[in-house]
Amino acid sequence: MRRSGTLIFLGALAAGAVCAMRPLKAVDLHVYHAAARSFFLQNGPMYGANQEFGWPSLYRYPPLFLCLFRPLASLPFRVVVGIWAAFEVLALGPLIRIWYRRHPPARFGPELCFSALILLPYLLYGLQVGNAQLLLVEMVCLALLVSDEHPFIASFLLGLGTAIKVWPAFILPFLAVRKRWRIVGITPVAAAIFTALPGFWLGWGKLIHLFEEWYFQELKINALLGDRWYPSQSLRGVMLRYLTCMNYSGLPDQNYRHVNFLSLPSWEVRQFWLALAIALGALALVWAWRCASDCAAHSIFFCTLLILEPNVQHLAYTAMLWPVLCSGVVLMDPRTPQSSKWILRGSAAIAVLQPLIPGAATQRLFQVLGIDFFGVLVPLTLALLISSSWGMTSPLWPRRASIAPCRPLIE
Questions:
Q1: Cα dihedral 387, 393, 397, 403 sign
Q2: Which of 61, 139, 369, 406 is deepest in the core (most CB within 10 A)?
Q3: Is 0.70 surpassed by the pTM of this model?
Q4: Using one digit for the tens of pLDDT, what is the confidence trace for 160-213?
Q5: How far is CA 119 from the centre of its chain?
Q6: Alpha-carbon gap, residue 291 to 326, rounded angstroms
């Protein structure tokens, strides 16, 4: 465990140094930094185009996140890139340490290496562009790890994450079926307090005005781009690309290929997706409710989130952090079904090999085909579902607890 801490510390230094040497790659972090400088140092706008960047690079989070980013606004951008990347990697240290304390590994090294193998391509891309997604994932995972001993801290972390991006709030139904009522009750209150907190600094009138600007900006972006912003790696994204003829005109990158074998009206496909998403979401809740392990139930949440979210970027797959940690435990357990092990190995191979294939045209083709979705996310979800219902006693629930495994949904 000490070695892993040392490796993470060295990795944080290396990540900070490498990213600082390539600041132009940190396009998302540039948006945060430029918007903070514009608003706090130059009396410019928080939302919309400013002097440093314009459409389609816009700041799209609520005001709270930019207020938290304020201390970095005065620093040179290259320094900010290095600090941001180093902090994101460094935050993995205590999280992994707590994880393996909760779930003692049978073989620590192989388990961690396999988990890192699946997550590494998405982690590296997230570090490169400087998006806030990884920090939010770490925040939610840490909240889940401390939820039993420190429910108020867990509620605090989930509320803060929800005030920055809405997706952490979707874990509340999964916590409700696991009877974590205190967290379910406190988290919305914490989220509301954090959302309103900038009003004490900026003034309530200014805060309301900023929320209006944010709301109308999002309406404009959705009206102009909608599902064409990027090749989404979610269920709706692949359904639209395979079942409708996508129009890529007006996008920053218009070189994506058409892969549809049907040309159905997009409205009908969206309605079908919505019905399917509701059914799959309900099924995931039932599975999480019947599962004997919180660890397995949380894995189901993260996988379901990525599958059912309307638009999922490549970097959003860092949300697989919790499921891939589970998958490392599952793979190294001798009682795991061989089918699950081969599925996990295959998804890891695809995750690692896909970004290594050269050629921008090839990578665009992989994106529109949904290789991340079909080759990584779906197999990982399937393997974890098989394992959680197979009757094992160690991979996805505490080793020392004499509890029954997940009961099959169909008996």
A1: positive
A2: 406
A3: yes
A4: 999 999 999 999 999 999 999 999 999 999 999 999 999 999 999 999 999 998
A5: 11
A6: 14
